[in-house]
Structure formats: structure tokens, C-alpha cells
Amino acid sequence: MDQNFTPPGNPQGPYTPPTGGWSPGPFGGPPAGGGRPPGPPTPPSSQPPRRRSLFGIATKSLGYLVLGLSFLANIIVLAVLIFGSGKDYHEKYIQKGSSDRVVVVPITGVIMDNTARDFDEMARDIEEDSSVKAVVLAVDTPGGSVSASDDILHTIQRLKSKRGFPIVVSMGGMATSGGYYVSCAADNVYACPTTLTGNIGVLWPQYNFAGLAEKYGVKENTINAPVGGYKNAGSPFEPLSDRDRAYFQHLIDSAYSGFKGVVAAGRGTKLKGTIDQIATGEVYTASDALNRGLVDKIGYLDDAIADAASRASLSNPTVVRLEKTRSIFAAVSGRSRAEAPLGALTIEGVRVEVDRSMLDELLSSRPMY
């Protein structure tokens, strides 16, 4: 091929192959191995190579370290929120002051076994905390299990005995039956103007389906020993006999007698009337309860806190309230991590979620304050 050949449209003259490192293939084309001719060599830079200063390296390393520590801290916080800190409650500040503290402990909802366990956990931590100088019980409950109410009362008495500091009750909207029972251990009892309290008495819920069972041909064949004994007394599938009724009445009377004893011992000479005149099962308004000596003053939580601080000779205490801890899982599911799994009931087409353990306790046949 003519080396002086000038391709059409090429004003720059004949094609000249580059020298060194590459030679044309047959007929002046690309080399046999394929590829493209190399481009023009890159001219050397006129600037000297950049050097990274020690300050720049240190700054970037410090940035990476801060990001790593931040990520690690977030992981730790997330783990604590998800799995909890080992306790089912945390402290929420009401007032920040000196190192001496007044602790507000809630007793809320239906009093059941888990209520007593939660309260005992808080009380034991308070017993070991030397900074706590007084306790306020924020009571807002309609009552509940006889045994659970008595457990809480015993824990309050133990707390007073071990630490000797003042304990004041602040009643919320309702402090009836078991709610009043546990309040009797306090040094002073405040009821807010709208409080309902009293209701001193005992009941034993029982439901009988004997008539319904007979209508549908359902018969009970429970076998128990001793024969003719009380093991199956109160069966919901058999009419309640006079003998069984008397048996349950005796048990109820025993619990009622214990309730009256707690009120009499806790209120003492403050009661305005005999215990039998007051313990009629009536629910009292705050003013009615004050007139009967069941409460000491009408006031709010702030008043109860101030009273507790004054009794402990504290001028500027730190006040904290203990509250149930809610993890991320609890926030999503809407329940505390300490609560039992939810069950579901469908009532007239409406799905209602309930705490299975609470439902079991409520439906179990037992005496209730």
C-alpha cells in the first residue's frame, strides 16, 4: 500500500505510523493482535505530587473515630431500649433539688399478683437507696385480689419498719376497696376533691350456668375426694346448695374481718364512728370520707409531696416518680415488656385485645377487695 496515500477528507497530509512500540499490520492496518494505536503520551505534570499533611490525616482519623463511637453508642442505646435495663421501671423527675429525695410510687389499675410483684421490686430498691427520705404512694385503683392487696400492705409496712421514713398517700380518681386497704398503712392520707374511696367490704364473684346446662343437656361428671366434701363446692354447672353458700360466706366473713382490722389499726382514733358503721361496703366521696375519718385532708399530689417532705424535714428535695418502662417493642405493641401476651376477644364483631393473665385472674373464683 502506498505509504504516501492521503485518505479522502484528511487535510493533514499522508498518514505516518508512530515509531516505537507499535507497527502496522499487514496492508498498513492495525497490528494482527488487534487493539488501537496508543494515543499521544501524557505530558509530565508541572506540579509536584501532593503530600498529605499530618494534620489532615489526624483530622480524618478523628472524624472516623467519632463516627464509629457514635454508631456504637446508638447500638448500645437501641439494645437497652429493646431488651430493657433489667428493671421494669424508670425514674421521671418531678422536681430537681438537693441530694435528698422524695419518691412517688404509683399503685394503679386492678390490683393483681403482678401489681404486688412490681410494687415489691420498687420497694426493695427504695429500701437500699439511702438518698430516699420519704415516699408518696399515688393510689388510683378500684381494688382487686385480697391476697395481692395484703401483699402490698405488708410491703409498705416492711418499708416503714426498715427505713422509718414518712409515707403519705395521694388518692387519685378512685381508691376503693383494695385501694383503700393499702392506704391504711400511710402516715397521712390525701384525697383529691373528686376521689371516690371507702367501699370497705369483700365479694367473691361466682357465675352459675346450671340452668343453661340443663337446657342444653350438659351434665357435670366431676369426680372428687373426699366424697361429699367441699372440693367441688361452687361448681358453675350445679345449683349452689345452702351448705356450699354457708361455706363460702364463712370464707368471705374471715376476709371482711381482716379488712376491718386493717382499717381500725391504720386509722385508729381518727375514725369518726365505729368500724361497723363505716365498713358497710359504701363508696364515699372525698368529703364523706373526710367526715368519717377515712382520709386526713383533701388535696392533690403536690400537697402530699409537700407534706412528705415536711415530715422528713426536707426544704428542697429532689422528687422523682417511678414509672413502668416501655421498650421499643412495647411502644410498637402498646404494652409493657413485663405484661403477658395479649389475647383477643370478638364482641359483636369488634376485636378487643386483653391481657391473658389478667383475664385469667379476674375470671378465677377468688375473694376480692
Please tell me about this protein's structure.
The chain has 369 residues and is an alpha/beta fold. Helix content is 37%, strand content 18%. Strands 1, 2, 3, 4, 5, 6, 7, 8 and 9 form a nine-stranded mixed beta sheet that branches. A two-stranded antiparallel ribbon has the order 10-11. Helix 3 links the parallel strand 3 (132-141) and strand 4 (167-176). Helix 2 runs parallel beside helix 3 (146-163). The radius of gyration is 40 Å and the shape is flat. Mean pLDDT is 81; it is low at 80-85 and 327-341.
Summarize the structure.
This protein has 369 residues and is of the alpha/beta class. The chain is built from 11 helices and 11 strands.
List the main descriptive attributes of the protein structure presented here.
alpha/beta; two-stranded antiparallel sheet; flat; 369 residues; 9-stranded mixed beta sheet
Which residue ranges are poorly predicted, with pLDDT under 50 across at least 5 consecutive positions?
80-85, 327-341
Provide the succession of SSEs.
Answer: HEEHEHEHEEHHHEHEHEHEEH
Structural class: alpha/beta
Distance between the termini: 116 Å
* CA radius of gyration: 40 Å
